[in-house]
Structure to design on (690 residues):
């Protein structure tokens, strides 16, 4: 029997999704091991082997593919746990990393301080030499200043070096000379070169991305080495793929040099799986509530929305990534009261170690999970299938001491308040990806993921006035499941600044073919057959004198034939969709800024499993439990159902609880739950069900 496995390592739990050769699927959750994430991964594989009734070595030897999402680089960035990094840059530009774009993030907040750069000023070292914007050398690279800068890096014990010179996107010769010089003298130093990583205009975007890539690069390399060694010792002979922030996967040896491309590696698989559950080319909102964070993203036409630039903890990154909004709202989010006596939830999390107070592992902070235990949403004896028995008294003590007493409430009232606050926080995260972009969230179904998502889905939907919620069978590990449906994907980008009226079509086509060749070479290394390779051409366009570009996917034949009219009409249409107006009638000129080529290696995607029809519309009741009903603001006795008994045709009226080993779904009084042929729980508002 051969297996494919998707693995998503989160801050609290590591998720596993298994797909067997005979069509069977399975889900598992294992507590993460923050000090060595690979240890939790191996422990999870051991559990799966046991459930398959196979010796560990035999099971691992039968695994054909592991697709792995990791938060290693994300955590290193958020905790400032990357390596000591230096920057070699053009003389006079060393402070660009700290000056950023010169715009105050909070214009009226005088106490708001600038983010601290990943490279301190004494390690941002100037090098003489200059290339102009057209790629002409106007000052040769100064070898004496380069030698002095590299000597400083060596004496300071720098482990990684970022190299970013002015206008290197137009001519990388100086960066290549500097990189060769460093590599010859310090073979062990990790190098990140901007002209190889991101050869585009906008110096701050480029230098920030290059530094970020250097900062986390050695961390990712060490982790991949350790993971590879452990898998090899266990007998793994298959293919290991790593999830990237752009929603595609790649071989470890490819992502090593582009470590920053994994900063959203974990949540990037969710939208792909969600698209399958809404019909392949449908639209939906995807929310994923795990133990540490809450991720919200948007799928339109079966494809997740993308950003070409973004920020990680206020640090600029200009690599393609899924448009995912992440906030600190998970099962481990800690409740606290601020100076004004207001109740807050997160963003700080108890994580996996020590975890919520109810885990009994030494944690004393009140968390969302503690509130859910007190409110009766979680069965203390059934959490994680009984492997993690929950201590309800520890949860009550933590909430009572830190929340209830300061606010003069009962423990139950404090827990209900915590529940409401975190729901409001998550609803705000959904508004960030919809309302702020001019979209009405009520027209999208909401696909819920994450081990904690099912407990809060109905209340998020009520907050946003959403009529429909989908809770897939694989909801608790949706990102891991989506990784097995993700294609291999590589994005190439080059600046090609020109007005449309002056466009050199042969030069444009030559650049497209060069970029295509680089991407296809990666697919060749990854063993993708030619019949499953494809490419997409995207252009970053803007009206003359605008600052921001609009990315437009254009037909290959339009680029090949220089059909500027077709390209312009696509740009006008996209500009109107995004901003509500376009200037085609005014005759405003168009400017091309960047050319992008996305090469894709299609993987064979499994069909969603079909489940047998339920013998009766009303599933058998597993038991009853006293739990909190938010609409009534009171505790009530609710029926509890086993997920295994929820089959196509089953119908559950809220309020009710539906349990399985790795998650619990709370159906509130305002919703009815119906199960479709794929085993997905479709929750519909009773008032709009007709």
């Amino acid at each position: 029997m051969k297996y494919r496995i998707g693995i998503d390592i989160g801050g609290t739990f590591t998720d596993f999704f298994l797909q067997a050769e005979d069509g069977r699927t399975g889900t598992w959750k294992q507590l993460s091991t923050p000090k060595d994430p690979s240890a939790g991964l191996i422990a999870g594989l051991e559990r799966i082997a046991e459930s398959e009734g196979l010796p560990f070595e035999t099971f691992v030897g039968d695994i054909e593919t592991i697709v792995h999402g990791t938060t290693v680089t994300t955590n290193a960035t958020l905790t400032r746990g990357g390596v000591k990094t230096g920057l070699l840059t053009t003389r006079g530009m060393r402070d660009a990393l700290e000056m950023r774009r010169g715009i105050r993030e909070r214009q009226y907040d005088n106490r708001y301080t600038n983010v601290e750069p990943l490279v301190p000023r004494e390690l941002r070292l100037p090098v003489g030499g200059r290339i102009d914007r057209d790629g002409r050398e106007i000052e040769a690279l100064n070898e004496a200043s380069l030698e002095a800068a590299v000597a400083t890096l060596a004496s300071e014990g720098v482990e990684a070096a970022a190299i970013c010179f002015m206008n290197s996107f137009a001519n990388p010769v100086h960066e290549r000379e500097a990189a060769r010089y460093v590599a010859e003298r310090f073979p062990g130093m990790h190098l990140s070169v901007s002209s190889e990583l991101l050869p585009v205009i906008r110096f701050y975007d480029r230098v920030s991305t290059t530094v970020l890539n250097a900062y986390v690069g050695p961390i990712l390399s060490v982790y991949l080495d350790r993971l590879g060694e452990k898998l090899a010792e266990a007998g793994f002979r298959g293919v290991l793929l790593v999830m990237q922030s752009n929603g595609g996967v790649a071989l470890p040896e490819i992502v090593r040099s582009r470590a920053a491309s994994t900063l959203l590696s974990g949540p990037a698989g969710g939208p792909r799986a969600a698209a399958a559950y809404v019909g392949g080319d449908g639209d939906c909102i995807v929310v994923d509530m795990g133990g540490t964070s809450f991720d919200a993203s948007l799928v339109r036409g079966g494809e997740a929305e993308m950003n070409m630039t973004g920020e990680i903890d206020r640090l600029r990154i200009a690599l393609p990534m899924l448009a995912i909004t992440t906030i600190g709202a998970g099962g481990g989010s800690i409740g606290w009261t601020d100076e004004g006596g207001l109740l807050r939830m997160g963003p700080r999390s108890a994580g996996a170690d020590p975890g919520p107070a109810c885990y009994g592992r030494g944690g004393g902070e009140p968390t969302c999970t503690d509130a859910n235990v007190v409110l009766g949403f979680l069965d203390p004896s059934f959490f994680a299938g009984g492997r993690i028995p929950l201590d309800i008294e520890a949860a009550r003590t933590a909430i009572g001491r830190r929340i209830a007493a300061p606010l003069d409430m009962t423990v139950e009232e404090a827990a209900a308040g915590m529940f409401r606050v975190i729901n409001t926080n998550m609803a705000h995260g959904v508004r960030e990806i919809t309302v702020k972009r001019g979209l009405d969230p009520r027209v999208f179904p909401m696909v819920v993921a994450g081990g904690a998502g099912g407990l809060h889905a109905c209340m998020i939907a009520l907050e946003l006035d959403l009529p429909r919620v989908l809770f897939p069978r694989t909801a608790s590990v949706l990102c891991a499941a989506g990784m097995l449906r993700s294609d291999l994907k590589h994005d190439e980008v080059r600046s090609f600044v020109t007005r449309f009226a002056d466009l050199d079509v042969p030069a444009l086509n030559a650049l497209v073919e060069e970029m295509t060749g680089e991407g296809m070479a990666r697919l060749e290394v990854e063993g993708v057959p030619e019949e499953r390779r494809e490419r997409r051409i995207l252009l970053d366009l803007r009206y003359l004198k605008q600052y921001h570009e609009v990315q437009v996917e254009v037909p290959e034949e339009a680029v090949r034939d220089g059909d500027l009219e077709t390209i312009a009409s696509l740009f006008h249409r996209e500009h109107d969709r995004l901003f509500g107006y376009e200037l085609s009638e005014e005759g405003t000129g168009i400017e091309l800024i960047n050319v992008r080529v996305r090469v894709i290696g299609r993987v064979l995607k499994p069909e969603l499993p079909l489940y047998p029809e339920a013998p009766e519309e009303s599933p058998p009741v597993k038991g009853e439990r006293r739990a909190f009903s938010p609409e009534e603001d009171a505790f009530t006795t609710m029926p509890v159902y086993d997920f295994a008994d929820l089959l196509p045709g089953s119908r559950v009226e809220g309020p009710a609880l539906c349990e399985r080993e790795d998650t619990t779904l709370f159906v509130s009084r305002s919703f009815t739950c119906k199960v479709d042929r794929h085993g997905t729980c479709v929750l519909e508002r009773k008032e709009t069900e007709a």
